Amino acid sequence: MDTYNQQNLVDEINLTRSLLDSLERQITAADKAYQDMSTTLAVIKERGSIAASETRISIGSGMFLKGNLDVSSNIIIPIGSDIYIEATTEEAVKRIETNLDNLRKSLEGLLDRQAELRIRHDDLLAIAQNIGNQEQK
Q: What string of DSSP letters covers 74-95?
């Protein structure tokens, strides 16, 4: 294999490695968002049982205040661009379940793409190894 083609092979290996690294970060972020939404959904569905007792309320940066939840009130939910609306529990649950479904589909797509790229990356490495073995002979 000539130098030009070898360089193209190296470039493609590096590109697929970079894409795999990027996908891994996206998968990690999506998985964290999924876990956070699942936790939120569980809290909303069980809010009646936590209303009677004092609970930790997140104020950000890993800090919490002790307090009681007003389970009779509606829930304030973000709809994007720092805009919030008031919604009933049922509306909030429906919105979260829709978001979870969309996120699950996105995660599946990312995982499929990651599997394809891993196969391509492994194939490229095998080609490079084969070329290296042939040149040593």
A: -EEEEEETTEEEEE-HHHHHHH
Residue type, 132: G
Sign of CA dihedral 18, 21, 25, 31: positive
pLDDT of residue 106: 96
Q: Is the pLDDT of residue 20 over 90?
A: yes
Two tokens, residue 72: 């009779």
Where do the domains of the chain lie, and which CATH numbers do they carry? 3-136 (1.10.287.370)
pLDDT digits (tens, 9 = 90+) for 27-80: 999 999 999 999 889 888 877 666 567 778 888 898 999 887 776 678 888 888
Q: What is the spatial distance between Cα 56 and Cα 43, in angstroms, rounded to a whole number?
A: 12
* b/e burial code for range 1-30 (CB count within 10 A of at least 16 → b): eeeeeeeebeeebeebeeeeeebeeebeeb
Beta strand segments in 18-107, E: 55-60, 63-67, 75-80, 83-87
DSSP single-letter state for residue 1: -
User: CA 15 to CA 6: how far, in whole Å?
Assistant: 14
